[in-house]
User: Fold these one by one.
Assistant:
Number 1:
Amino acid sequence: MTAAEHQEASSARAVRPWEVHAVRYATLAARKSDLFYRYEAYGEPDADVEMAYYFWILRRDGETIVVDTGFDPAVGARRGRTCVCPPVEALERLGVDTTTVSTVVITHFHYDHVGNLDAFPVAEFIVPKRELEFWTSPLASRLQFASHVEAEEIASLRQLAAEGRVRVTEGTEEVLDGVTAVAVGGHSAGQQLTIVSSGGGDIVLASDAVHFYEELELERPFAVMHDLERMYAAYEVLRGLARDGATVIPGHDPEVARRYAATGPGPDGISVVIA
């Protein structure tokens, strides 16, 4: 099923809408030349840029789904990131009991998306098949790949798979009613989008398929990538979804929290309601 086919199928049947929360838990002060691939090619002066770190919560009729799990605060500190609120504490402040969450969707395996896995003792983890295959392969140990993950977290994911607590997705697949995973690759081997049906239309949680609005609008690839060609192709998928009426939410842009703060401030002070 393609992303367009997903939208057509969803519109043809009644789907109970989800409420989508973006939870900002950390920040990083950087330079554009640090974050955008070959930034010097644009012939523009360098500039300061703020990078925000999010995970997402989907809520509907008493059901709660978590999309990505943020980084382990100790790992973030070692990597020079400022933790605004530890992810598990943020979830608690939002009234989410991680010990009872039944489903966690993982968009890719980089350290800032798969920390704190042991906080979800009963959850099934929905992960991209290509991502699991790549990060448990010998090639993933090469420095330029391995520097973006934590070996212990990859080992945890491998163990969860061995225990039968991992469900893999491939291509475009509706993983839950009103929640569709779309594998695009590019940033990471199996990077996926998460399309969520909400009361105001489809919300596309781009995760790291696009980090900033600028990255997509000006077509400026992020510095961390697995495949440049597929990264560009992912932009085309996202643009197509936007043309069809979906709202695209970048994975690391502080503007997300600003754009939605007025219409849907979260009760905890660190989240916004996207829809």
Number 2:
Amino acid sequence: MKKIEAIIRPHKLDAVKDALHEIGVTGLTASDVKGFGRQKGQTSTYRTAAMQVDFVPKIKVEVVVDDRIAPQVVETVCDAANDGQIGAGKIFVSNLEEVVRIRTGERGPDAI
């Protein structure tokens, strides 16, 4: 099993969610996060004064999938979240040792 975490722009969440649903991903977790990468934050203006904002608002999308569909999930998120601009996001893929569904006690791929 793989855990796929994607840091994306907030306005891309619906596109990513819909694209994942189309390929059969039945659940995801989305969290509001802040951060910066190569873009080094952004400059905003408040009452005619320019201010540097180091942390940019992003959305972290997390899905857990079977190893077999992980590459397809990564490609789907890339396609749906890419806007061609710096700061479009990153995807992290991790191995999972165990998943347990609390309600039923199912384990492994059955718990996904």
Number 3:
Amino acid sequence: MRLEFIVLVWGCVLGAIHLFLAVRLKIKQYGSDWSMGARDESLPPPQPLLGRLMRAQSNYFETFPIVVAGIALIGITGLHSRWTAIGALTWLAARCVFLPLYAAGIPVARTVSFIVSVVGIFMLFWPLLTIAVNIPALFR
């Protein structure tokens, strides 16, 4: 299996970890009745750790579909290379670092890890972008 696909599998695992941690703390703060109910009532603001985990989860799931699309397109087009693999690994490693940094409330390092993950996404998409930019040449 291509390394990019392995990264995608571990990206799904990391997504499940995001979900599990946030849900675990939501149930701890709001109770199991809230968890099993319709959740129509207004709730007090989340405690700081829960709030950070919820924001980290939201941030992860805002960027994860882009990575999924990139890895899928790399696989479909066969444009995988050492650099797309490095980009995928860079993204995953940075996202693994991002979660505990965000949970701990460490702002600057968290932002740096996010930026590194975006660099990984650009590395993953680079071969696709170079082809996409040359599409007008196909119509000459």
Number 4:
Amino acid sequence: MAAKKKSTKPRERTERRFVPRSTASPMVVYVVGAIGAIVLGAGAFGQFGNAIRKTQIDPVSWAPWVLAVGAVIVAIAIWIGTSTDAAIRVGVAGIAEERNPTKRIPWWRVEDVSGDGENIIVHGKDEAGVDTTIRVSRRGLPDAIPWVLREARDRAPEQVEVAADVIKKIGKPSKEVGEVVPCPPLQVVGRHCADSDKVISYEPDARVCPRCERVYHKDHTPKSCVCGASLADVKSEESA
């Protein structure tokens, strides 16, 4: 009986997305928002109450000012209830900061990972080769810090410069936090082989490190990646 062929199903590339929290007290936000809503409602009634009262009384003279004050108070509540941190994505494709535009540092381009427990700072080059620094704060993104540190230690261990006591303090990440989302498609055509610098002209010629996603040409794939991961499995891959 012929041996069964191994499944050629590609591995799923995912990452976790973390939305920042407000650093202000929720109670303060609720109180300021409630006051703003009350003032805004009073101003609206004074200005447009005729439609409810069904009378032809002129609007109260100070109603526009009350409306304006209410709108300002509501805007303040929205402002203090919104974090200045950007959403963070971390996974097999690297670490990304959702600003305009999104900045992403692949793991193979991370140069150093440092921090004191309150902040984790990842420095390296983005996908275009531009120097990039991404800061993850405990105040705005407490759930993201353990995941960033874990992924960095797994995929770029030589670049992690966080002290052992800080790592212990941060603790293990929880699978219950963040939103698991698919990574952007991995582009290999046009990339240079990490071993020979040969340009990848065809996608089937590429071999990708499963840990840091460095790309190698199929004819120049070493036994292990620069990051230390074994390439024994990917070295012998055949294009589907």
